[in-house]
Structures are given as C-alpha cells and as structure tokens.
Amino acid sequence: MMILNELQKYWREVHYRDGYEEIKTPIMLSKELRETSGHRSHYKDNMYTSVIDEKEFAIKPMNCPGGMLVFKTSPKSYRDLPLKAGEFGLVHRHEMS
User: HEC profile for 30-90?
Assistant: First the structure.
C-alpha cells in the first residue's frame, strides 16, 4: 500500500503542476452511455453486466464513457479546450489470459 500511495502522490504532484483536475467517475455505467461512447458494440462480450430496475449497467470496463459525463456537466467553448482531467480509475473487464 505504501508504494501505491507514493505513486499516487507523485501522480498528483505532476498532474496538478500541469493544470489537471482530478475527477472520479461512477463505477457502474448505463447501457445507453456505453452505446453513445461507442464502447458497447466493441466490448460488450468483455463487460461484466447487471440489470437494475430493468436497466442494463456494466461495471466500468474503461474510463472514457465516465469522462463523457464530466465533459457534459457544463457548456464548453473552444477556449475551454483542452480539458485536463485525470482519474485513478479502476476498470474491470474480461480479457484473454
């Protein structure tokens, strides 16, 4: 745990210095969000899914769809770009051994 904490500390120092904002996205993402991002059609066989209240969700297989949620929280101008955001995201997917 000590090594992980030191790596995260270093990561934060470098990213904050370079103007990045640390974000945290949901661990479960809806089917609709994964379809919008284009990830569902490519990775659906490698995702761990669940149905909650008759809606399909998947445990986060990658960070990109969650990043879309952060991007759409407010209107953006070209002057706002590039957005600099980083996450210590855990991802879960089934891949070949």
Answer: EHHHHHHHCHHHHHHHHCCEEEECCEEEEECCCCHHHHHHHHCCCCCCHHHCCCCEECCCC
